[in-house]
Design goal:
The chain has 245 residues and is mostly helical. 67% of the residues lie in helices and 0% in strands. The protein contains 14 helices and no strands. The protein starts with a helix and ends with a helix.
């Protein structure tokens, strides 16, 4: 596997779990975006008045609907919450619905949590969207999508989506001893997956777990790894894991 392919694969994985919701000063999306919510809304010729934003929740442009939900949620006016909830519930585009739900969950609104939970547990959605919904819930300290993330990480047919879920597993902290062992087992199995992206993801996930019993397992994976680039990254991950002793 070439360095170029590894680089592209890592970009794809990053993109799968990127924070899709628009940037705004009081939301977690502020860093890394070229413009704020207000700037983008102005660029799209949407006025920033409450009435205009409420109307924008039903704009034909999905990006506008998404931006309007975040702008209204960020202003935290109680009177606009029902309109955001209604818009999120009827939203036809899954990614936009998930983003709108995250806007609600970010300000503690229960319907947002419910919509995100439904999304992560919806097996008809692509794995990357299920993982994104789960990641958003983890961002607001909700671990209710654990089972769904385990399912995507273990059984999704698309390696990139499995890798996205794999990277979330170490973020689940309130799990039973048995579930901790299941997490560890899925990650270790992925170290020998045919797809190099998954092998890289598994190596990184072991570092995030910080489990010292993984050191000899990762050493063995390095010994048997035939791809030069993957092996080099695994070696770097091993060093990071050893530093956690």
């Amino acid at each position: 596997m070439s360095r170029y392919k590894i680089f592209v694969s890592s970009l794809i994985v990053t993109g799968v779990l990127m924070q899709y919701a628009p940037a705004q000063s009081n939301s977690p999306q502020g860093n890394g975006h070229p413009m704020s919510n207000t700037e983008r809304l102005k660029q799209l010729h949407i006025a920033l008045t409450k009435d205009a934003l409420l109307e924008a929740l039903h704009n034909p442009n999905a990006e506008v609907r998404d931006l309007a939900a975040w702008q209204l949620a960020g202003e935290r006016g109680r009177d606009v919450i029902p309109a955001i909830v209604d818009a999120a519930r009827i939203e036809k585009i899954p990614r936009t619905r998930i983003n709108m739900a995250f806007a609600l969950a970010w300000i503690g609104e229960k319907p947002g949590f419910a919509i995100l939970n439904d999304a992560c547990n919806n097996s008809s959605l692509p794995g990357y969207l299920r993982a994104a919904a789960a990641a958003y819930l983890l961002d607001v300290s909700d671990e209710s999508c654990f089972g769904a993330v385990m399912s995507v990480a273990d059984m999704d047919s698309e390696p990139t989506y499995r890798n996205a879920a794999l990277g979330l597993l170490p973020r689940f902290k309130s799990v039973s001893k048995n579930d901790s062992q299941r997490i560890y087992g899925i990650i270790v199995r992925s170290l020998t997956d045919a797809d190099p992206t998954l092998r890289l993801g598994a190596s990184s996930a072991l570092v995030q777990l910080g489990t010292q019993t993984a050191i000899p397992v990762l050493r063995n994976a390095i010994t048997s790894e035939r791809d030069e680039v993957v092996r080099a990254q695994m070696q770097a991950d091993l060093s990071r894991l050893q530093e956690k002793k």
